[in-house]
Design brief:
Radius of gyration: 33 Å
Largest sheet: 5 strands, antiparallel
Strand order of the largest sheet: 4-3-2-1-5
Number of helices: 9
Helix content: 40-55%
Strand content: 15-25%
Order of helices and strands: HHHHHHEEEEHEEHEEHEE
Length: 275
Amino acid sequence: MENWLNSIIDLVTSAGGKIILALVVLFVGNIVIKTFLKAMQKNKAFDRIDGSVKTFSLSFMKGALYVMLIVAVIGILGVPMASVITVLASAGVAIGLALQGALSNLAGGIMLMIFKPFRVGDFVEASGATGVVQEITMFYTVFLSLDNKRITVPNGNLMNANITDYSSEELRRVDLTFTCAKAEKPAKIQDLILDVICSMDMALQSPEPFARLSGGDNESMEFTVRVWCKNADYWDVYFDLNQRIVEAFAAHGVQAPVKRVSVQQEDGTMKNTGR
């Protein structure tokens, strides 16, 4: 009986020591990994790496380091790695099915790093999300929308979606349409629009601005306006152009299109009135 008790005490003491050591390694390892990742982020050489590659690399290193830490803890606890591998192999089919989405996202992240359809800081529309790319991790890409919402999109979805990168080119074109009454002279309207464009510093004169009559109906004429600008100035040019052209129309007495409303009279006939 005494020998049996001694055996139990020895077993508990041995297991307890391993558990305490494993917890210490887990705690210290977690601190070391976080410190290492923060040091990498502050490293000047690391700053020279492209933003997309930087966020993906940090995410990949974080995952790899924690896997190594878990393996070390398992080894300290005395669990034979051969047994762990055997268990994982026997459950391989189930694990593969469970991780199918994660593996697809990981593959998508790797493809994003290789082909680089966009970079961190670009304004992008893809897979139902629109916003500025904040970071690209192993499994997800994070967007920040114009109204400051954080949108997380799986990398696998991005690699199978159409991607529109509004920030990729140096120049961008502003396309607008304006209407006026049919009685106005097209040449007058065209000159007014071009004068407004020429007065704007952010509107480029090369490529040449475009303002032409492009359509209309019995009551109105429609003018298409196309102006090139630097990518960063797009929204300033867009809103300024709208406001200045409307103000120029008002200052020069340009009339708005007359809307015809059909009214049925008592005798059943239709009468058109202008509004």
